[in-house]
TrEMBL record:
Its EC number is 2.7.1.148. Belongs to the GHMP kinase family. IspE subfamily. Gene3D superfamilies: 3.30.230.10, GHMP kinase, C-terminal domain. This is 4-diphosphocytidyl-2-C-methyl-D-erythritol kinase. HAMAP family: IspE. Pfam families: GHMP_kinases_C, GHMP_kinases_N. Catalyzes the phosphorylation of the position 2 hydroxy group of 4-diphosphocytidyl-2C-methyl-D-erythritol. GO terms for molecular function: 4-(cytidine 5'-diphospho)-2-C-methyl-D-erythritol kinase activity; ATP binding. Residues 303-325 are annotated as: Disordered. The keyword Acetylation does not apply. It comes from Streptomyces termitum. It catalyses: 4-CDP-2-C-methyl-D-erythritol + ATP = 4-CDP-2-C-methyl-D-erythritol 2-phosphate + ADP + H(+). ATP binds at residues 111-121. Residues 220-292 form the GHMP kinase C-terminal domain.
Length: 325
């Protein structure tokens, strides 16, 4: 297996046989975290919302598995078999008794190790792209099982929209959303490791009773009604204190966004990306500019939600005779 950065030949030109899948980032509008389980995971009540910030994964025929990546943070993406896109291709191929010979190219816009499920998104996208490339028509329920094997956030990347995730976040129930929400995301320098943030949560929770995580009815109503003001009043992330304990400077980013008129601010998932809910597209532009000017973040993105889950954008010629093992 090999890799490198730069555009894969044909990935941008649209001429190569291959399948391109677009996949959204997520923000957890509620992340209720329970006590650590014996298997090392935490039970969650996670209200996922997909946002219009996308990675694209192209799968093209090849004689062996390779991964390439382009984008501002491409140098921080592993290009070996630990890449979630590569793991997805291997898992799907193994399920069907195939050789995972595929060239995977990732166009990465989702912050790396940013708490927006970027790697999970690429895993879900690669699964869908390889399934189409290899002409497998794997049932949706099987794809979701494979997603859950890849990681707790991966099923939601496939589904998109809005969903309540129970268990370790992988058991999804889709949720109705009654309108469009506008967001600004502030990208921090460097990333945060998800297990390290859960570890910090455990330390902060020591000696305290941790309630069984449950979704907030008021938050679910706000989503269903498309009511931005009500949603702003109910955003909650139990990992926020843990992320702030590891990266205290994020408090200044949160304050800069609310000072600039955001209706609410929170750490996205395990961080360190911060998320700002705003009234409309104009407010998003203004808050993004103010955040950049404040010098408390590296970059900003504006986005709307809900966004669709992993979607095939371009399907070329199927791989000629994917090799049976
Ligand atoms: C923080 C969130 O992004 C919120 O959506 C997710 O819970 C994290 O999901 P993820 O990155 O897909 O995480 P996984 O790859 O499944 O797990 C990575 C590690 O995070 C911790 N982890 C993850 C999910 C969970 N419910 N409890 C955990 O304690 C565990 O240490 C686990 O070994
Ligand atoms: N396709 C990928 N893109 C980015 N990182 C990947 C990928 N595959 C594996 N990784 C590894 O996963 C680590 C976490 O990256 P990722 O971008 O998924 O974090 P995250 O968005 O914080 O995850 P989550 O929100 O699901 O907890 C990275 O530091 C990297 O080593």
């Amino acid at each position: 297996m090999s890799g490198g950065t730069g555009t894969a030949p044909g990935a941008a030109s649209g001429t190569a046989p291959g399948v391109t899948v677009r996949v959204p980032a997520k923000v957890n509008v509620q992340l209720a975290v329970g006590a650590a389980r014996p298997d090392g995971f935490h039970d969650l009540a996670s209200v996922f919302l997909a946002v219009s910030l996308y990675d694209e994964v192209t799968a093209a025929p090849a004689d062996r598995l390779t991964v390439t990546c382009e984008g501002p943070d491409a140098d921080r993406v592993p290009l070996d078999r630990t890449n979630l896109a590569a793991r997805a291709a291997e898992l799907l191929a193994a399920r069907h008794g195939l050789d995972p010979a595929v060239r995977l190219h990732i166009r990465k816009a989702i912050p790396v190790a940013g708490g927006m499920a970027g790697g999970s998104a690429d895993g879900a996208a690669a699964l869908l792209a390889c399934d189409a490339l290899w002409g497998l028509a794997t049932p949706r329920a099987t794809l979701l099982d494979l997603c859950a094997e890849l990681g707790s956030d991966v099923p939601f990347s496939l589904v998109g929209g809005a969903a309540l995730g129970l268990g370790r976040g992988e058991r999804l129930t889709e949720l109705p959303v009654g309108g469009t929400f506008h967001w600004v995301f502030a990208v921090a320098d460097g990333g945060l490791s998800t297990p390290v943030v859960f570890g910090a949560f455990d330390r902060l929770a020591e000696g305290r009773d941790i309630p069984v995580p449950a979704a907030s009815p008021a938050l679910l109503d706000a989503l269903a009604d498309g009511d931005t003001t009500a949603l702003a009043g109910t955003l909650a992330n139990d990992l926020q204190a843990a992320a702030l304990s590891l990266r205290p400077e994020l408090a200044a980013t949160l304050a800069a966004g609310t000072g600039a008129g955001a209706l609410a601010a929170l750490v996205s998932g395990s961080g360190p990306t911060t998320a700002f809910l705003v009234k409309d597209a104009d407010a998003a532009t203004a808050v993004a500019e103010a955040l950049l000017a404040s010098g408390t973040c590296r970059a900003t993105h504006t986005a709307t939600s809900p966004a669709p889950g992993a979607t095939v954008l371009r399907a070329g010629t199927p791989a000629p005779g994917a090799t049976l093992l």
